[in-house]
């Protein structure tokens, strides 16, 4: 609980003791304000009694207070909607931050997955390279084998031609031999 203070002030030439929780400086400032209002009211109309000047000053102070109160109420009302919008924006920003964190987390997961896929791809590419090298070797072997087969087929064809030629010659020789034998037999028989 705040300590209550007694402050002696002078308003309209009279000393008054004010008891309050505010600072002495604040209480004196308020007393000076009230005194200035009363003095100002008396200067404007010198025929006023002290109580009438005090009453008019109180009225003027109440008018200023009321206008300030109305202005403050209007100001509060005018900032109410922007403050609600600000609160909505804060909520939106919070949800945006949460969504951003979720996206960042998902992105990190995808990045990790991508790294693993890259490693797998690298391994598969190495295997593919080995297979391609093995395939190149096999293709070279097949090419050599096809060349050998072609050479052997050519030799076989040449040998078959030679065999046919030799067979013709043999047939020709046998026919000639038969003819000679037949001729010799006919000659020997006769």
Can you describe what's shown?
With 190 residues, the protein is mostly helical. The protein has a domain of 71 residues. Helices cover 85% and strands 7% of the residues. The chain has two helices and two strands. Strands 1-2 form a two-stranded antiparallel ribbon. A hairpin with a 2-residue loop joins strand 1 and strand 2. Helix 1 crosses helix 2. The longest helix is centred in the middle third of the chain and has 140 residues. It is rod-shaped and about 195 Å long. The protein starts with a strand and ends with a helix.
> Structural class per helix/strand content?
mainly alpha
Distance between the termini: 172 Å
Share of residues in strands: 5-15%
Total helical segments: 2
- Compute the gyration radius: what is it? 63 Å
**What oligomeric arrangement do these chains adopt?**
single chain
Question: Which descriptor suits the 3D outline?
Answer: rod-shaped
């Amino acid at each position: 609980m705040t300590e209550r203070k007694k402050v002696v002030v002078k308003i309209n030439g009279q000393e008054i003791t004010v008891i309050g929780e505010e600072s002495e400086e604040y209480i004196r400032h308020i007393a000076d304000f009230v005194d200035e209002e009363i003095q100002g009211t008396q200067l404007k109309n010198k025929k006023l009694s002290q109580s009438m000047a005090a009453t008019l000053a109180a009225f003027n102070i109440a008018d200023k207070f009321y206008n300030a109160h109305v202005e403050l109420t209007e100001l509060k009302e005018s900032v109410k909607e922007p403050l609600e919008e600000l609160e909505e924006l804060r909520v939106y920003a919070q949800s945006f931050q949460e969504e951003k964190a979720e996206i960042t987390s998902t992105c990190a997961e995808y990045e990790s997955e991508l790294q693993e896929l890259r490693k797998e791809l690298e391994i598969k590419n190495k295997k593919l390279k080995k297979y391609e090298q093995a395939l190149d070797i096999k293709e070279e072997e097949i090419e050599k084998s096809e060349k050998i087969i072609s050479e052997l087929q050519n030799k076989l064809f040449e040998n078959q031609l030679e065999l046919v030629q030799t067979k013709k010659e043999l047939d020709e020789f046998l026919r000639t031999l038969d003819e000679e034998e037949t001729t010799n037999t006919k000659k020997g028989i006769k």
